[in-house]
Amino acid sequence: MAMASRIRSLLIGAALSLAAGTAPPAHAMGGSALDTPTLAGGVTGSSKATISVQAGPSGAPGGFTLRWMKESDFKANAGQWFPNGDPRQGQAFFWGNPTLNTHDGAYATFLLGPGQSIEVEVGDLLDESGVTVTSPAADVPEGGELDAGTSYVFSAFANGIDQTPSSRECPAISLGTRVQDCTRSRGYWKSHVGAWPPTSVPMALGSNLYTQAQLLQILNTPAAGNGAIALAHQLIAAKLNIAYGASVRSCIAAADQLLSSCGPSKLSPLGLCSLAITSTVSKTQCLDDFNNSPPGNCLTPAVPATWGRVKTIYR
């Protein structure tokens, strides 16, 4: 009886450890307790790809796992995935409640019931909640964003509990990112400081002006559920794109108005400006789409704007 009690205690302890979200070892990838999900590609940006994940008849009660790599690497590896943890391959566990991939409030969780589907944006997960991401090593400097004009392959598992794949892996799908024009992503601007147009700083965000050094501090601050930070990340990139020659989007003024509600309080880590992410997510998505937009979004010629034009846009 004592031995049986000890074994039962060990099994309960192991189950609790897995439920706490412990990352699975390599051999845990691809169990078959759940039905395999299916994937479909959607609209892409220059640094992200929209993926639709649909659970099978057994659902994905612990969320799902996506992984991706460049199609050129996939083909060079004879159409096979690299071992779990290979630096050329990305992986993300979707296990909690989204704050950005909400589809205008339609999605409240990454846990999927039988046949349920959800759209997520791979390459744009830095500020998302309820996701654990390991980006390919080459993408880390730009926040895990994808390369422009590049074809990727994606596959998925259904998870039985948080961060533990419990189905067979679905067949890989291929999806290419858009080529860049004059708009660049948040990650690009963060890692290419020398490319910032001279007229772009100091920059107004809401009611406050920020130096280039301060803007970089904000860009390197995770949103962590703060809608003001997620919005500012995209707004900084949008204003740099306009200074670089992109056309203007109406949501830029709307984003500034939202940040103005913080008054003189600056954005973290410089101040305490905080906004509910539900109040900012639509403007954040609008700016994100603008920063990832296809060719044809530029003025002619696409050159840095004058300081007079920049002041008109930012005020």
Describe the secondary structure blueprint for this structure.
Blueprint: H1 2-19, E1 38-44, E2 49-54, E3 64-70, H2 71-76, E4 90-94, E5 117-122, E6 131-134, E7 151-161, E8 164-165, E9 173-176, H3 186-191, E10 203-205, E11 208-210, H4 212-219, H5 227-244, H6 250-260, H7 277-291, H8 307-314
Antiparallel strand pairs: 1-2, 2-5, 3-4, 3-7, 4-6, 7-8, 7-9, 10-11
Helix % is 25-40%
CATH superfamily of the largest domain: Immunoglobulins
Oligomer: single chain
**Total of domains:** 2
Mean pLDDT: 85
- The CATH topology of the largest domain is what? Immunoglobulin-like
| N-to-C series of helices and strands | HEEEHEEEEEEHEEHHHHH
Anisotropy-based shape = globular
Radius of gyration: 21 Å
Structure class: alpha+beta
User: Which range does the strand content fall in?
Assistant: 15-25%
The count of DSSP E runs of length 2 or more, i.e. the number of strands, is 11
Task: Give the CATH level 1 class of the largest domain.
Answer: Mainly Beta
Number of helices: 8
Tell me the major beta sheet: 6 strands, antiparallel
Distance between the termini: 76 Å
CATH architecture assignment name of the largest domain: Sandwich
Low-pLDDT residue spans: 1-28, 300-315
Offer a quick outline of the entry.
With 315 residues, this protein is α+β, with helices and mostly antiparallel strands.
Characterization of this structure:
- By secondary structure, this protein is of the alpha+beta class.
- It folds into two domains: 28-176, Immunoglobulins (Immunoglobulin-like, Sandwich), CATH 2.60.40.10; 186-314, no CATH class.
- The chain is 29% helix and 18% strand.
- The protein contains eight helices and eleven strands.
- It has helices spanning 2-19, 71-76, 186-191, 212-219, 227-244, 250-260, 277-291, 307-314, and strands at 38-44, 49-54, 64-70, 90-94, 117-122, 131-134, 151-161, 164-165, 173-176, 203-205, 208-210.
- Strands 3, 4, 6, 7, 8 and 9 form a six-stranded antiparallel beta sheet that branches. A three-stranded antiparallel beta sheet has the order 1-2-5, with no helix packed on it. The protein has a two-stranded antiparallel ribbon with strand order 10-11.
- Strand 1 (38-44) and strand 2 (49-54) form a beta hairpin.
- Helix 5 (227-244) packs parallel to helix 7 (277-291) and helix 6 runs antiparallel to helix 7.
- The chain is globular and about 55 Å long.
- The chain starts with a helix and ends with a helix.
- Residues 1-28 and 300-315 have low confidence and may be disordered.
